[in-house]
Amino acid sequence: MSDLQQNPQDVSGFLEPGKGNVQLVYVLYLAGFVVGITPLVGLIFAYINRGKAGGIYDSHYTYAIRTFWIGLLYSLISLALTFLFIGILGFIATAVWSIVRCIIGLQKVSRGEAIANPQSWTI
């Protein structure tokens, strides 16, 4: 038998508000660079679970939601500027910004720390 059949709680733990779900949201955002739809799934998880977990996790959900929307805004601005050839640099900067925010979020949630300023537009 596989481990999943013996411990079905292991899988459902990622869907419940808390550490596992926050980590899943960040990983889905990062997977979006390979599979385009996964950030939307992460955004849905973040919206559904924000306010339910309490404590440090609410700051992570807010941070993740803002990462998605600000990243989308930066991407749209970069798209508009692509015609001036500076948009390509904007896309690269937006990708780096998103990756860094996700890595910071993963590190902090692994250590059990809250995001100091989840409303920030920067890293």
Structural description of this entry:
- The protein is mostly helical and 123 residues long.
- It has one domain (3-111).
- The chain has helices spanning 3-6, 9-12, 19-31, 38-49, 56-81, 87-111.
- α3 (19-31) packs antiparallel against α6 (87-111) and α4 (38-49) packs antiparallel against α5.
- The longest helix has 26 residues, at 56-81.
- The protein starts with a helix and ends in a 12-residue tail after the last helix.
Shape: elongated
State the distance separating the first and last CA atoms: 44 Å
Task: Indicate how many domains the architecture comprises.
Answer: 1
The secondary-structure element order is HHHHHH
SS summary, helix count: 6
Binned, the helix content reads 55-70%
Overall pLDDT score: 89
* Helix-strand category: mainly alpha
How many strands, what sense, and barrel or not for the largest sheet?
none
Please mark out the parts with pLDDT under 50 across 5 or more consecutive residues, or reply none. Answer: 1-9
Outline the secondary-structure elements.
Blueprint (H helix, E strand, L loop, with lengths): L2 H4 L2 H4 L6 H13 L6 H12 L6 H26 L5 H25 L12
Helix pairs in contact: 3-4, 3-5, 3-6, 4-5, 5-6
Could you provide a short overview of the structure?
This protein has helices at residues 3-6, 9-12, 19-31, 38-49, 56-81, 87-111. It is an all-alpha fold.
Highlighted features:
single chain; mainly alpha; 6 helices; elongated; disordered N terminus
